Amino acid sequence: MTAPRAIPTIEELGWTPELKEAFKPFALRGLIPARIIAEHRMACDLVCARGEFTAEVSGNFRKAAGSKAGFPAVGDWVALSFDPAARRQTIQALLPRRTRLSRKDPGGEDEQVIAANIDTVFIVIGLDATYNLARVERYLAAACAGGAEAVVILNKADLAADAALKAKEIDALGFGAKALALDSLNMKGYEALAAHIGPARTIVFAGSSGAGKSTIINNLLGRSAQLTGKVREADSKGRHTTTGRRMFVLPGSGALLIDTPGMRGLELWAGEQTVDETFEDIQALAGQCRFDNCSHSNEPSCAVREALASGKLDRAHYGNYLKIRKEAAGLKARMEIAERLKNKTANKRPPEKPKDTFRRGGRL
E strands along 158-252, which residues? Predict the structure, then answer.
């Protein structure tokens, strides 16, 4: 954390009466609360009442974590055992997450928590050749599944004459998210963005490479905190300019901003029911079907098929929902198989040692 220079209080970091209540058992053990502001390979940076420090999890924490998602992420609140003489402080426990932005780990079958305890997810989409409504839906679904407010930033509005039309398309998706057009080159639209930023509110910027996240963040911070990379004109693809997740304090507003590297893919970490609940418009139509278990394929009095036929439900929107739901079902199936194999291995008895059929000095 590089701005402002003074160490913020834990209240300025987002500490609430609810968190204080949840922390009572740890306070009795002499631990102190701290918030994660950056992640590294085997450690993380955090801020507490004593200052800013690098810390690592305890051995007991590591054993109990169970998965990658059980380890601290940027935005998490942790219980810290503080030793002023130690080179690194020790994290003893992780407080329950109020909200999160997560996805399936691109390198495995685990959850990857991108940011925790966030109030608003700003989904940055470039209005250039990379604009993709299906990708917007994925980000919106991920934000809603994690319990945070979602705001879509249509960046590079100076490159598109149809920014208002694109905003209406996003409004029609049914996620309840607001869409804001932003022209970072000419600093237009930032007043509307400021309405979603306030003291001790945690916000995260997410989006694909080249969408302009780092430029927006630099404008909000008033300096070049992140390097900004040029976009290849041939295909509008950007270079990653953020190498790790980090929290900043916005000067003036006091908001807590988390920047994330550009993501090339986003597979939701969610079950089928969560996907259904996220696509509220489709779930509402499904509730009007004649049969509770309607598959929306050939059953009579199917409200979903009727909405598709009349144009009330957009076919591309419905197709994206089916694709995301299929991914969720596949993820669930793979996890169940992995769990069965794990249990089978754990319950497998070790082979018996062969009986000793020889005595010293000769055969029995």
Answer: 178-181, 202-207, 246-249
Helix (H, G, I), strand (E, B) or coil at 129: coil
CA distance 225 to 254: 16
User: In this structure, how many other beta carbons lie within 10 angstroms of the beta carbon of residue 239?
Assistant: 13
Bond prior to 4 in cis (omega within 30° of 0): yes
Domains of the chain: 17-94 (2.40.50.140), 100-259 (3.40.50.300), 272-341 (1.10.40.50)
pLDDT tens digits, residue range 259-290?
Answer: 888 776 788 788 888 888 888 899 999 999 99
Q: Distance between CA atoms of 198 and 204, rounded to whole angstroms?
A: 13
Q: Which residues contact 342 (CB under 8 A, 6 or more apart)?
A: none
- Look up residue 172 and give its DSSP letter: T
| CB-facing half-sphere around the CA of 274: CA atoms within 13 A | 17
Assign 357 a pLDDT band (cuts: 50, 70, 90).
Answer: very low
In the predicted model, is pLDDT for residue 84 greater than 50? yes
